[in-house]
Write a structure and sequence with these properties.
Length: 306
């Protein structure tokens, strides 16, 4: 009996820790899996935001482009009757055929090559044998490692014809991402990005998820800083040329509050209303930003393309 009580206390504590870690967004506080070619020392999440040079930008261009091509490749496959495991397999095969690795595979116990977040799922939906149904909206989030560098991007896809409010949410979320990206220039702050996203999304009567954020990346999947999708101009660090990070707003039709399911990954809206997300990987330049994950096929918003 005592042991049972003790055991439940321990598991509750572990669960709490686990949950706390998860709601720090996509961004764990430590990550030391990647190896640095020159030193063979693990690359760790640093407290300072890394500034990268032209070689890193060239590498990110390759990783970003391949990631975008993977998302392009999926467009004709997203239709009623297809399972999210089949989509996951397509991403896995595509990555390996192109000499890349899916960064999520084996990442903190995650065992798939992408995240597939349907309808009320905010992010980190786990591919399964569940079939897509007409009217679903699905976010597919792919991160590919190419020569050690990470390209991270996600888009919304429509499964057959969708309701007007679902399409509107996707369009608002896509525009939110683009307004956030348009705020990026040296001298602006991360708060300018968050404010551009939040002020637009809320003016469209949508809400901005707080519990997950964008992140620095490069040779690490999740590096400093956290990129919040809400805030005020002037808040946070000042943007400098050479910074690499994602912008990936999650926008909801109802409350911004989320819950994480018992599987420890799947985040859903607290009110089970629809959620949408788009994500790009960018580098700050002298004049603005370079978007590494733009679709070569012009399919940055697959929902609008059909
Ligand atoms: N690709 C997600 C992001 O945008 C992270 C997924 S981590 C996983 O940062 F383990 F859930 F796959
Ligand atoms: Co990301
Ligand atoms: Co992602």
């Amino acid at each position: 009996m005592f042991w049972w009580v003790l055991k439940s206390c321990i598991s509750a504590a572990i669960l709490t820790l686990h949950k706390t870690g998860r709601t720090q967004g996509h961004v764990p506080q430590t990550e030391s899996t990647a190896l640095n070619d020159t030193t063979l020392a693990p690359i760790r999440r640093s407290s300072a935001i890394r500034i990268h040079g032209e070689e890193a930008f060239a590498a990110m261009r390759k990783a970003g482009r391949l990631t975008a091509q993977a998302l392009d490749m999926l467009v004709p496959h997203v239709k009623p009757g297809v399972t999210t495991l089949e989509i996951d397999r397509l991403v896995f095969d595509f990555a390996l055929q192109h000499g890349a690795l899916p960064a999520t595979l084996g990442y903190r116990g995650y065992t798939h090559s992408c995240c597939t977040s349907i309808n009320e799922v905010v992010c980190h939906g786990i591919p399964s044998d569940k079939k897509l149904r007409e009217g679903d909206i699905i976010n597919i989030d792919v991160t590919l490692i190419v020569n050690g560098w990470h390209g991270d991007s996600s888009r919304m896809y429509a499964v057959g014809p969708i309701k007007d409010w679902a399409r509107r949410l996707c369009d608002v979320t896509f525009e939110s991402l683009n307004r956030g990206l348009a705020a990026i220039r040296p001298g602006a702050t991360f708060g300018h990005i968050g404010h551009a996203i939040q002020s637009y999304a809320e003016s469209e009567r949508c809400s901005v998820v707080r519990d997950f954020c964008g992140h620095g990346l490069g040779q690490l999947f999740h590096d400093t800083p956290n990129v919040l999708h809400y805030g005020r101009p002037g808040e946070g660090a000042v943007l400098e040329p050479g910074m690499l990070f994602t912008v990936e707003p999650m926008i909801n039709l109802g409350t911004y509050k989320v819950q994480v399911k018992k599987d420890g990954w799947t985040a859903v809206t607290a009110d089970r209303k629809l959620s949408a997300q788009y994500e790009h990987t960018i580098g700050v330049t002298e004049t603005g930003c370079e978007i590494f994950t733009l679709s070569p096929a012009g399919l940055d918003n697959p929902v609008a393309a059909r």
